[in-house]
User: Fold these one by one.
Assistant:
Number 1:
Amino acid sequence: MIPRLAHPASVEAIPAGFVEHLIEAGFRGDIETGAASRTVYSTDNSIYQVEPQAILFPRDAADLKIMACLVSDPAYRHVVIAPRGGGTGTNGQSLTHGIVVDCSRHMNRILEIDPVRRIARVEAGVVKDQLNRALKPHGLFFAPELSTSNRATIGGMISTDACGQGSCLYGKTSNHVLALRVVLTDGTDFWSRPLARGGVDEVLARDDRIGHVYRTVERITREKQARIGEVFPNLNRYMTGYDLAHVRRDDGVFDLNAILCGSEGTLALIAEAEVNLLPIPAETALINIRYNDFNAALEDARNLVALKVASVETVDEKVLGLAKGDIVWNAISRFFPEDAAGSANGINIVEVLADDGPSLDLKVSQVIAALESLENVNRLGHTIARGHDEAEAIWAMRKRAVGLLGNVDGAVRPVPFVEDTAVPPENLAAYIRQFRALLDGFGLSYGMFGHVDAGVLHVRPALDLVRPDHVPLVRQISDAVVALTRKHGGVLWGEHGKGVRSEYVPEFFGDLYPCLQEIKRAFDPENRLNPGKIASGNDTPLMKIDDVPLRGEFDRVIGDELRSHFDNAAYCNGNGACFDFNETSPMCPSYKATGDRRQSPKGRASLMREWLRLLGEKGTDPRQAAARVRRAGVLRSLPQRLLNSLNPANASDFSHEVKAAMDSCLSCKACTGQCPVKVSVPAFRSKFLEVYHGRYLRPLKDPLVASIEELLPWFARVRPLYNLVASTRLGHMATRLFGLTALPPMPALSLAREARRMGVAVARAEDLGRLTPEERRSIVVFVVDAFTAHFDPDVALAAIRLARKLGFEPLLAGPHVNGKALHVHGYLARFEASAQRTARGLQEIADLGIPLVGLDPSMTLAFRSEYRTLPGTPLKAVVSLPQEWLASILPAAAIKPVSSTKTFRLIAHCTEKTNAAASMGAWTSIFRRLGVDLSLAETGCCGMAGTFGHETRNRGLSEQLYALSWKPVIDGQLESDVVMATGYSCRSQVKTIDRLAVPHPLQILETLVS
């Protein structure tokens, strides 16, 4: 049995009375001081781990002012704060032992869009893609591109002066900032705008903090102008933060925002921003060039840049290989075909933009002609992607490159700490050759990709920082790369900010560094804002890369075996793909609905890591604890679990905080399919629940929900009584006592009875084995799950009729327990026992060469995930999704196209979309074979997710998720529309909330096939 786990208090507890005084002062935002929140906010996308004292979530600029004023109180002179946006920084920019200020939860409003002046005003927590979605109807966009655009906040982009692909054309974030509303540590609320000479004189005369700031910056940039020109490199990716070189513009304007952009929260808190907007390019194309050598791609990039294209991006063979196993590959594989010599060892992606089609064609032909005139024996060929949709699909792969580098087997994985160096583009190839030689000298593997047009290449050496012998390599490699960038006229931090790497700032700035310190003191006299980063205004030392705790130090006690056993939880690299703001994206519905980082895959993985670490410190192996739970059994362990649950001393058990985060997981597996590192929350959640409930009692609903497949046949025998419970107010009151709600009624139609009437037999391996191979080729076995069989038998009957129309003899798999509900709720011993029985039966049929076809995506895909890892007898056979089977047989089927005036739309199950992405196109091809156009609706999770939405505690969240993306599609359908859904739970949710019966696509296909 696991012990009670006490999470240690943060290094320095939050001062007594601080939270109370904050509330008394009128702070309206959220305040979190619990161990779970501190754990989740102790990491970002870097190799470091620093636990904060608390996390504040302000609601508006007024909250920022209240907070700043309180921090300036002498009673709290030791309190420091660090702002945080999307939390995807690769260098610990937002990590702090103080208080984190997160504007992403509430300060995420788009305040104004002026399409005439091409200006938008937004709060700091607005996500870049969120803004661009709002701008699209106006034909405008916010230009700075970056790989984390679906979760990067505008405030975070400003704080790191972010940019990425296309920076040579569009510049950095600072090039698009018109004005910043900032709050200083004394509570000053100020709009920083570029000022002409008269405006500067007026501000210089002010007798307050703002006047002092302007006087300091004006004097330094005037007196040190020549030296600034010498120190700051002439690069597209010049030094971010405290940018003295761009304060005094050529047009005579004085722009303090050059100092603020890239300052990483060390000078002020950003509340709002005014940004300029650009027209969306009318036409776009990507020329995808393949090479047999990555160095050849780098060398050729110089030729491509000279062609004045919009951008040139490079990806090496490691990233390309990882992309082939990712969810994005199906949409782009045709653009990267296999060559006679094998796979490409590097690619260049060349972007071409134009105002109209003919101009685009001309530009593309000019680039192709130039390529053909510049012979390169290492160039294997090229493809062209035209239009925004095709281009976006390829850019999606490029954006996922950072996360994909973490998706490798084993403990040694590419990690960020020298991954954003910038050198003059003409020096890039020589620089990278020496960089590679450096890493080769250490015997390390690595992945590379980047913006070769800007001279930036992302390089991640593969290390396991749990290993003591790998830890010193961070210092050795960093020092060597600093020297290498200086040698080639570049900088260490071309894109991802300084953060923990600030120790190199004095060396880079030289005799200008005291000027940076003076600016820091002018803005933040007491060094309260993100101290230790970029410049120190007092005797507080700058952070050093080997003085900040590494994640690996915390993971060392866990050990490699446990790290690998718990489904990549410990390998979550903080990339934050699970923070996707888009309501129509299936990724992590619980985070979308709550905005709570604890209820995201990254948050749950962080909590799991900490839980494993605390167990390790106690000398407890959770695998052994799980084994003891199984041996003890439910009844024998009941008294002890009851005592543990009632014992007040256990109230502070950290396991409860982990459990709370796991409870809101829908087990939809979107993280499994969409996380670049393949963190699988449902998998490690079930293992956690098994151990947790070996110590504490389960809620009453758990045994009922987990046993639902075994109970449904009994409910069917007393169907009127069951429906009385499911359909009456008194019945609802009774089920709520057990924590259940929204139970679907059971129809009078019986699948078993109708199948017998139709002459459909139950498939038995011994009977099928007596048939000839020719006879077996005409058979298909439908593996009907218990929910479809008992609540929606029409779907199974439609599948039977459709199969017969297509010339097949349909059979039904015998009664079986899929066990998904058992697995979801952590009844792993029971799951394994029932799943092994089911697997044996299905395997016997599959071994005869007979196709197995499931009907519900979630239940069917369990055969490909949970069943593949079964101890003893894992299922090797493939149980196909309906569209996979139909796509394989329709080319040979004699069917006639139909004519229809209806519009057909399909809403796919989120597990299906993310874990069987390649099958989505099969639905459109199947309907096209019948002469019908089918569109796939853009939706996220319906909120039901198997039994999740039937649990009382989850019902509010379930309905909230339905409203996010499903309800607009359902409400927007016309009488001529046919909207279909593949998931049983999804159709049940629509029926429960909107009282509409949405058909399965098999039901529609059966009516279309004559």
Number 2:
Amino acid sequence: MELASTYNSVETEDKWYKYWMDQNLFHSEPDEREPYTVVIPPPNVTGVLHMGHMLNNTIQDILVRRARMMGKNACWVPGTDHASIATEAKVVNRLKTQGIDKADLTRDEFLGHAWDWTEEHGGIILEQLKKLGASCDWDRTCFTLDKERSESVIDTFVKLHEKGLIYRGVRMVNWDPDALTAVSDEEVVYKEVKSKLYYLNYNIEGEEGTVTIATTRPETILGDTAVCINPNDERFTHLKGKRVIVPLVNRSIPIIEDDYVDMEFGTGCLKITPAHDINDYEMGMRHNLESIDILNDDGTLSEKAQLFVGKDRFVVREEIIPELQKAGNVLKIEDYDNKVGCSERTGAVIEPKLSTQWFLKMTEMAKVALDAVMTDEVQFHPAKFKNVYRHWMENVKDWCISRQLYWGHRIPVYYLENGEFVVAKNDEEAVRLAKEKRGNDALTIADLRQEEDVLDTWASSWLWPISVFDGFNPEKNEIDYYYPTSDLVTGHDIIFFWVARMIMAGYEFKGTFPFKNVYFTGMVRDDQGRKMSKQLGNSPDPLDLIAKYGADGVRVGMLLCSPAGGDLLFDDSLTEQGRNFANKIWNAFRLVKGWEVDSSLPQPDSATKGIEWFSHKLNQTIEVVNDHFSKYRISDALMSVYTLFRDDFSSWYLEIVKPGYQQPIDEVTLKATIDNFDKILRLLHPFMPFISEEIWQLLEPRKEGESIMVAQMPEVTKVDEKLLANFELTKEAVAGVRNIRKQKNIANKEVIALSILDNDGSLDKTFIPILSKLANASEVNFVTEKVSGALSFMVKATEYYIPLGDLVDAEEEIKKLEEELKYQKGFLISVSKKLSNERFVNNAPEKVVAIEKQKQADAEAKIKAIEESIANLK
């Protein structure tokens, strides 16, 4: 068949992905094989593919494809996350464009719009992953809000509540005024902002004098209930037991003492607003202070503020200062840089806020999960993240699991009229429990009110390795085969959100770890080191990259610079390098397929020795690749296969075995070459699935349904390190000949004679036939003394001579060499003179002196080589 001159990635990728799907090669069912299980970090259901997804899923696909070829029953479960806050925010924004306010809709009406949005946008990202070559078991696609996953979430809530691990309480939480919900500590991003520091005077009650406090949030003074000083601060001894007046609202509040106050920070006097600062809240608890919540849920001021009621907090920040200045309470205002907590989902500035929420006790679960990682029962790659994990787990707080949203798993709590409640999996169970609780058989669901809040999204995704196999359903037994899973690939930015919580859930609900290994990818950054994001406009569209460079090219390009846990500095030249590598593979295949075979031809000695060498080189590479995979050095594994093909197979092996121009090849050599190509393609397949399948299918006729996807990964047979070292010396000898040809302008087609002087008897003659072919030598002679009238070079103790004969005019060559010798000697004199100058040596920078010494050594070496060449030519 006629092969295209260039590799067509688009045509190839569409063809083979459809073939894999049609042959059901991604699907897994429990059988007698060892399972290899990976669960996808579920992307947001309404998300689209970005560079982080590309990197993460490429690595997962490599691990899964390799496991299949190692004979394991590989199961890669895909799915998406309902992403409560992000999705609800998108739905709310779309409704606004339609003139609809969420507040005007019932819960069911809003959820109807949310499901419409999900059906419209959901799953787009999974379809995009197919373009990358992701070999997920699409029949197992899950969604955190589907029936099975939802039942798992509700079931675990009930169980945890029965164990006393879930409770309801009023706590200080991070409040997102845009999303109108609490968010966890991990969902708060701190940003450096330019603020103002306001120094405000509070009048001391009943006497002349003031107390000065400093704040970046002057609007919160309306909620102040105390001013605090350090009991050891002698500057304020006179204030003990006194009271001050809150400006504008004229409320009398006490001056209290607490060691928490840093005497060196600010003025040494601290305003206390228990309802709007976590540290103030804790101090308020210690001193039994009143708590005045001056903010509504949307960030406007409440009636409790007394002033500026209904205005946005930031508007009030601007308007309150002139009022304070009029009242004589502003001492000074300074520019001030500080960090402000913002919602990761909406970008809104977070307000610490007292709120009634549901919490999950974490302390005991965290101890078990911490021990699992610190003892390497669950292994982190790279291991450096163990310390980050330990710090968080040792300082874990109870998890605020409730969110004030509609989109999500509604908390299965049902309230009775008197405020009591029951926790139940469904309405029927709730009615039964309520009847028992109240001793009233007449109760119906109409007498109960279900909790309005939903669960934090992570309360579903922490169950992911279990719930994707419907592991809370006693009728399902797949969980026993696939769990615990094998490897998790994720970003280190969700080590607390997700990884830690999954480990806790695994031990809590299944009694063992959820996965054996965690591979942390780095962040994808641009060539300036900035994190790629839509906001910065520095992130390319992954699908555009695939269209331009091919999926294989993009996969290779990303991996070539992606160490585990290390950030990836990305630019298009990497994916271009990947595409060029795919073209190199294609061109090598075209070369081999273009050879005509003559079964009557004997195998040349050079081909015999070349095949022998490459067999050992291939086995050595397989050993190295296996070692890299065992240590999760995925990029290093790719580079090993990359260099095997580019350098050893393409640049050396094919040169050794290829027949002369327009000449046929012998049958034995061609068969061995195809066999070697086949093995390299199998090594390449996890990294470059499309081109490896295309060429593998064309190497020789395949049976219907066969695929490289399920072909066996090559195994190591024998590695002769001595033989490989000997070939490296042969390569040096070939390079020496080619260097002389280049220097003397002797064309490669010009046949030479080669003489070898083995000075110490160490030369292994195994690869002399290869040297003869690649050097284009008509004869290779072994001599016992130096050869005159020849150019030479050395490899270790062995000297190689190329008699010039008719190739070069010896007298003309000697003349050129003598001119070069004269120049080098003059150069050496000038350098030596500079180095003999003590003033220069003592005063010049050490680096400059070292450079001059290197020039001296180089000149001496060149002079010696030129003198030897002249001697050989005479």
